[in-house]
Design a protein that fits this description.
mainly alpha, globular
Length: 129
């Protein structure tokens, strides 16, 4: 698995052991679906898509069993002040952001991760497309 797929896993699973399991599941799905790769997109794009879909399915399964999902608005209300993050060191801020992302509903999480990885501009949930 290339360097582009690995960092994404952290956005889907906080627990290191479960993250390793997710990596194995992504590898398995890539291997199982490689015969269906038809070259309509780059191998990198296809790999990211398979990894993303596998991770998204994993999160949906895990969330049904575990935690309550929340919306952007609920997260926004729960944060005291984004300004406080400026006073926290970079590693702590990244951990805090990761924890917030992990609380989002799958679609919201996918949008944020895509934005953070530079794949798309952020569109406000209240904006009209």
């Amino acid at each position: 698995m290339g360097p582009h797929v690995g960092p994404s896993r952290a956005g889907y699973e906080a627990d290191p052991d479960k993250r390793r399991d997710l990596r194995q599941e992504i590898h398995l799905q890539l291997w199982k679906s490689f015969a269906a790769f038809d070259g309509r997109c780059s191998l990198k794009t296809w790999t990211l898509r398979v990894a993303h879909n596998t991770a998204a399915s994993y999160v949906i399964r895990e969330r049904r069993v575990n935690a309550k999902l929340v919306s952007f608005e609920e997260i926004e209300r729960s944060l005291e002040s984004v300004e406080q993050l400026r006073d926290i060191d970079r590693d702590r801020a990244l951990r805090d952001v990761q924890q917030v992302i992990l609380k989002l509903k799958p679609l919201d999480r996918q949008i944020i991760i895509s934005y953070l990885e530079g794949w798309m501009p952020l569109i406000s949930p209240t904006s009209r497309v």
